[in-house]
Amino acid sequence: MVIDPVKWRRVGYTKRIERWMDIQKTRRIYELGSLPPFLLVFAGRVAPIEHRWNQHGLGGDNVRRSCRDLHPGPVSLLHWSGKGKPWDRLDSRRPCPLDALWAPYDLYGHAHWNTA
């Protein structure tokens, strides 16, 4: 997500998103994690960005052998979307090969693990 922070503050997007999150606490209106409040607030007022900016889907489930490779070409953002997170897979000692890209940022000491 790329945002204009000046417009974000001026329009009050934080409060709008928090309002939907409060509704979710009492009425459970969605099931898809953190994305729905943004979708409800922006209601289609978004623009696509080039695929190379977001390498999504790295959260594939390693137990089911759904680790993904990077798409061809340059990549600017590695996005572990999905249920499989690199920190969980490193903890369970069943990482996907690309989890090694995240390992150096691990603040809890897994960075030294060989994930290959």
UniProtKB/TrEMBL annotation:
This is Hexosyltransferase. It is a single-pass type II membrane protein. One of its GO terms (molecular function) is glycosyltransferase activity. Pathway: Glycan metabolism; pectin biosynthesis. The keyword Cell inner membrane does not apply. Pfam families: Glyco_transf_8. Its main location: membrane. Keywords: Glycosyltransferase, Signal-anchor, Transferase, Transmembrane. Belongs to the glycosyltransferase 8 family. It comes from the Eukaryota. It is an enzyme of class 2 (transferase). SUPFAM superfamilies: Nucleotide-diphospho-sugar transferases. It comes from Hibiscus syriacus (Rose of Sharon). It is found in: Membrane. One of its GO terms (cellular component) is membrane.
